[in-house]
Structures are given as structure tokens and as C-alpha cells.
Amino acid sequence: MKLYNTMSKTKEEFVPLEEGKVKMYVCGPTVYNFIHIGNARPMIVFDTVRRYFEYKGYDVNFVSNFTDVDDKIIKKANEEGVTAEEISKRYIEECKKDMEGMNVKPATKNPLATEEIGGMIDMIQTLIDKGYAYEKNGTVYYRTRKFEGYGKLSHKNLDDLQSGGRSLLVTGEDEKEDSLDFVLWKPKKEGEPAWESPWSEGRPGWHIECSEMSKKYLGEQIDIHAGGEDLIFPHHENEIAQSEAANGKDFSKYWLHNGFLNIDNRKMSKSLGNFFTVREIGEKYDLQVLRFFMLSAHYRSPLNFSAELMEAAKNGLERIVTAAEHLKFLLEGAKTENMTEKEQAKIVKSQEFTRKFEKAMDDDFNTADAIAAVFDLVKFINTNTDGESSKEYLQNLLSQLVALTDVLGIIVEKEQEMLADDIEALIAERQAARKERNFARADEIRDELLAKGIILEDTREGVKWKRA
What we know:
Layout: E1 2-5, E2 10-13, E3 21-26, H1 37-55, E4 59-64, H2 71-80, H3 84-101, H4 117-129, E5 133-136, E6 139-142, H5 158-164, E7 182-187, E8 202-204, H6 206-218, E9 222-228, H7 232-247, E10 252-258, E11 261-263, E12 266-267, H8 278-282, H9 287-294, E13 303-305, H10 307-333, H11 341-362, H12 367-383, H13 391-407, H14 420-435, H15 439-451, E14 454-459, E15 462-467
Parallel strand pairs: 3-4, 3-9, 9-10, 11-13
Antiparallel strand pairs: 1-2, 5-6, 6-7, 7-8, 11-12, 14-15
Helix pairs in contact: 2-3, 4-6, 6-7, 9-10, 10-12, 10-13, 11-12, 11-13, 12-13, 14-15
């Protein structure tokens, strides 16, 4: 299996630190609002990477954090007149709902930055003791030039950074020994959450959070560190500087980064009006369509999101699901149990598609080619099964299809749709709960229906519903 390592800029053979095990850290979202489709890409991509390692028999320890203390969270809390903790807890729950809708497996551990402050303080103290950090008026800075390998991930030169200006500059630069030094700890401002430390009452810088959480839950050395390519510099570069200076070891063997997501060939931004949350997409499409769309291109390539491409993804996904349903329909009516010799020969032929799938995934997780192999299998199923096929033959083909789509996180064995009468009964219960001002129960029913693909719309004429 070969992985493209951002550090070496080449594909490298994957050799785990410990045989049969993969230690993998993926930078998670900052939770101050609903996640957007740009956040969704690394979630889907690296969940698929994890699934493929598990398919190959690896035991994967998959850690992905939530950044739950940040300027954006504090700003949102101040706007709403609530605590930062209330904002972060709310949007962690909403994020988990969206991840479930996209069939992203729960991480082995989702550490929260606010629960790991003690470890961050210890790591900062280690960096001070080793001469890699210094304190000035309650702020602790990292001595960037002291770390000899700085720039090895982003392939940036420190002198170019210096002359290129302000990429790394932060507030309080006059206090710094060098303009390239970055913040490890900052004193509190009025109205901000803060923790006691030896330097000041304050909070950690963003970069130190991941260094500490990765170390605590995976150890000083890990196999894979992953995230969006926007994190290469300065976030991942700074993580390397902190972790390797503190621990005295190489931090991560492989660095994986997914490409950017554009909307109609333009960068996503609220000012352009092309900003979409996963929740908004979920009102128009089953989130399985979004997942299938995200995997239709190689993860390192830039990906363009458009209504036309989503429709194409929807149609492609339907072809796969329909093939699975066709097999199940034939299985129910199959007259014979065991495979014929002719069918056995066909199964041998069908296994070529599994090999093609594995070859694509072994080559730096090429999901686009892996999906092409799934379509080849679907075509084979559609042209080589009928009412005379044996149970064993049909079940073998279905098992192959499920095994491959499961790696991609695509669900082909769908639950039965809710009946209209059941939907109406739940809507009536929700209306009764609202009259009784039991809004918690009313929200619970809405979420329950949404999870089953039923979208409610409250209008003057009453509650309307539709299937996603």
C-alpha cells in the first residue's frame, strides 16, 4: 500500500510503527456553528482511509479532536449572551448528527481541547525548560528559529518567511524575540474563558492543542497525521516543531492532506453567497449522495461542488443501490441453493473487480478508480443474474458488493422507508408536545424524523413533510 506523504512529496510504502496497528490523528473542526461542506471533505476522506485499513485487517486507533475554545466560539457566545461552553457543546452535538448522516464512523476518541489544558501546560513547560519557548508579560512564545527542521513539511524557508512578511505574526509581536515566533499561551481578555497557569490566567494557542491531544491518546510517535491542505502551514508545521522539540522524536511518519473544495469553480465564502452547511445539503439530498460525490475525485485533487455534479452523484449512487436491491429481490425468490459450475466460474470472474478496487485503494486511496471498479461489478451483476440464479451465487455477489461499498462508507442495504401513517402520527405527537410547551420532545421528534430522511416544514397552513 502506497501513501503520498506531504513531507517527502512522494508516494511511500506504508510500514506501520507497530505491526498490524495504525495510529492516526485527524484535525477536527472548530465548533462555533454548523459544519460546512468544506469541513465534510476531510471527515469523509479520512473515514474512508480508516475503513480501508480496517478492511485490510489493521487495528486502527483513530483520534480526531474538537477545538472547543477559540476566538470564533467566544465571539459567537458574546453575540448570543451565553457561555463559550454552551456554544461548543451545542455544535459538537450538531456536528455528530451530520457525521452520522454522512456515515462517518465515530472516532476511537474525540478529545476536547478544554479537557486537556493540564497536559498542554506541561508540554509548554517542557518547551520552556528545553529552551524552545519563553515567557513575556504572561504570553509564552515558541522560538521558531531554534527548531532546525522548521519548514520541512510546508517546504518553506525561514528567511523567505521573514522577508515575505506576516504569515506567522500574531498580536504582541513587539514582545517577541523574533517576528516568526508563535504563541503557545496567551493571557485572558475580558469576558473570555481562562485557566490558571504558571505564566498567567489564560488559554493555550491553537497549535499546542493538537500536539498534546495526539501525544496523550496515540503516543509520542504516530503513523499518520491528516487534515485539509490549508492546515499544512502554519498549523501542522507548528505541531511538528512543538512535538519534536518536546518529545525528542519524529512526530508522524506520514502526512496526508486533502485538496480544497470549490463551489461552482469559486472558493466558498459567505460574501459570495456560495456557502453551504452539511445541514442545508441534507435538506435537498440524502447525505450519502454528498459522501459519494466527495469520493468521486482523488482526495488530493481540488474538487468542484455544483448542483449538476451532485445530481450525477445521486444517479450513480442509485445505480449501486438498485443493483443491491435487485440481488435481494432475486434472493427471496431463488429456487436453488448451491452454485452451478457455470456460476462458480462467474464468481471467479467477478473477483477481478475486487482486485481492481483494492489496487486503486492501495495506490494512495484512489477512490475515483475504486468507484469505477464498483460500477464494473454492478454492470456484471445486472447482466449475469436472473430468476434462475442460485441463492449461493446471488449471496456471494451481494457480499462482494457490500464489502466494497462498506469501505467507501456507502450504505446499500437501506432500512425500509417510514410509512406515511407513521410519519403523520409522529407529527401529531410533536404538535401536541408544542402545545404543552414540551419543546425538548418536539425537537426530539423532528430530529428522529430527520434521521429517517423526513424533512418537516412549519407553515401557516400546518406542518408539511417531504422525504429527503
